[in-house]
Amino acid sequence: MVSEEELFASVDALLNEEPHLPPPAERARLREAAGITQARLATALKTTTQSVKNWENGRSEPKPPRLDAYQRLLNGWAAKHPAPGAAPTASVAATAPAASAEPAASRVETADAPQAPAAPAAAPARLPFRPTATSRRPATKKATQPAADPRFPHGPLAVLDGDGSAYGVDGIVLDCPVSTVVELVEWTLRESGLGAPKLNRYGKDSDPLIVLTAAAAVKLGLPERLEGHEQRRSLRLPEDHPMVKQVVKAKWRLTQRGFGPWARIYRKAQGRERQCVQLAILSWDALDERSWPGVAEMEPADIARVLCIYAQRVITPRGSTAVSGLELMTALRPPTRAVRDEASGNWVPGHNPGSLGTEPMDPAPPEATPEHPVVVNCGWTGGFLNEEAYQWVRPVDLLTDEECTLPFAVGLDLNTAFLAAAARLVVGLSAPDHFVGPKFNPKIPGSWLVDLSHVEVDPRLPSPFTPDGTRPTEPAWYQTHTVAYAQELGYNVQPIEAYLRRETGAYLDPWHDRLKTAYVDTLADLGVTKDLTDAQFLAAMERHKDVDPAMAAVLAAIKATVKGGIGKLRERPQGRKYKEGERWPALQRPTWRPDIRAAVISKARINMHRKLRNMATMTGLYPLAVLSDCVVYPSPGDSPLAFLPYAASGKPQPGGFRLGPTPGLAKLEGVQSMLWAVDLMEQGYNPARHIKGGDAVLDEGE
Questions:
Q1: In this structure, are residues 621 and 458 in contact, taking their beta carbons and an 8 Å threshold?
Q2: What is the distance in angstroms between the CA of the first residue and the CA of the last residue of the chain?
Q3: Of the chain's two ends, which shows fewer C-beta atoms within 10 Å, N or C?
Q4: Which one-letter DSSP state was computed for residue 43?
Q5: How far apart are CA 580 and CA 159, in angstroms?
Q6: pLDDT tens, 13-63?
Q7: Is the dihedral of CA 665, 669, 672, 678 positive or negative?
Q8: Whether pTM exceeds 0.85
Q9: Rounded to whole angstroms, what are the CA distances from 556 to 249, 416, 522, 564, 655?
Q10: Smallest Cα–Cα separation from 257: which of 287, 229, 279?
């Protein structure tokens, strides 16, 4: 005979099962009886209108935690609006479906968001997947808001997991019932509601991005990992891979990058309608750990949060952060705009003033790299610009006894120093013209051959004219800002030659403004704000990475976007098969502009030297070493508060280093023993490099 315990156990098992929903048609009837639109229901359940449509026509089923909330709502509606001829009941599970209810697919949708056509009511329902209880839920902090553009109601991108859940902006979860890459592309363009509006009135909308987890990649027929002898970012699926053939057979195209970690699948635009989807495959190392620390290991909802914040504050990722940094320049300064053709009266693409145009431009020989065709073809032997970031260590014999007795060496790192240098930076927009014996003009951007060996600089400071800080000994090529600084120091300069540009403009201004805002806002989300005192600022910087790992990853990506974008302006040839003198793919871009990169680095290095000189004047302190945007000082304490100059009022002295979250201001980078630093210098090491971890070099690749 069955015991009472067994009966209760069986009943409890039933109670613990997932709630059973009424048939799709009954769900739609209850919603309509309550006078609620699909769009309003989607907002209440933090999902999408398309998902509600799918639930009501049988294409898919909700998943926890929405399943329980949806069940509760339907129960309430069923009590208020029983089916015709049925007694009111508190449980929807016992309610019979209304015979007169229309199929959901035949109803008129009242939502204002664009929707894909609904599937027929007879379509088979997709069995619901059951992700783990808490691992798929997005973080509770809402740092972003859904896109305001009605064309893209679900944000700029989604992270697709193996169970068909596509995680988007602000915790939205889309149902993505696809099994191939071609189906995914078509779903993205027709049903997903993903994308982002253009950043400039003359630009283009950002294409939707789908990020694939390892499980999603395998489900779509892709290998979980790419293997080969090349660097991971250079690997591609072979052209005879079944997935590549499938894409081509469906009349889709791949860019020259092929099907790699960042794949772009497109068709030629039909009128103004773009047909392009960007894919990023996490298990193929699409998100570099250096630029996106810890992101690839996060849960899909958290990955979506990080990438959506970056997309809304910077740009929808289109590759590495270096690629995104370069794409942001073009998105904010589009090469063309609509102009009226006087002959035909039609609107045609025309040059957009202030942009770099549509055609690539060869640099002047001293601005190029040694392997560039301009150099190789003309046999140039006149030298090159050497505008690079500092890598300098003060010789040990120039250390005083007093400095050697100080107990600490403290590193100050300038916040996004190269971004600060891009502010109001006038660069050349036209091709270079050659001049012999020109008079120097600090307002004209270009490259100048000039002898600066006569400029005297305190040996305890690096020379402002060379990256290694040594005094120049002969004429060399310098960017305008470097030569102008020699004039600022009171010395006469007489250029021998110059390559100058007649058309100029502050090309990087909108790029600087957007990235600066993104950087400051993200720091503020981590508790580092402008209103903090210097002591509070240092304390906040000490713990900011632990406040919110997702936001800390966004901050790291923004910084990498700055450095990578500047470095990408002079991308060198990649691959073992390259031969000197050949053109490489990067040269086909209008944004291959080594002269603009040189201008940014020159201004950043001059800004650094100016602060070093002012610090020496105000405090008598001289640096131990400088690496890029990090300077190391001997200190009596373990904090920059122990040696930075302050006025009697407690405010920082202008002209020297100041603490703060704004680009160009300083933060504490590290504290080490002074004896340790001196010992390193005796061995030929750079203390700044050891404190920073050697991550300050502007990347020219990616």
A1: no
A2: 73
A3: N
A4: H
A5: 41
A6: 555 555 578 888 889 889 888 888 888 888 888 888 778 887 888 777 887
A7: negative
A8: no
A9: 40, 11, 10, 12, 28
A10: 279
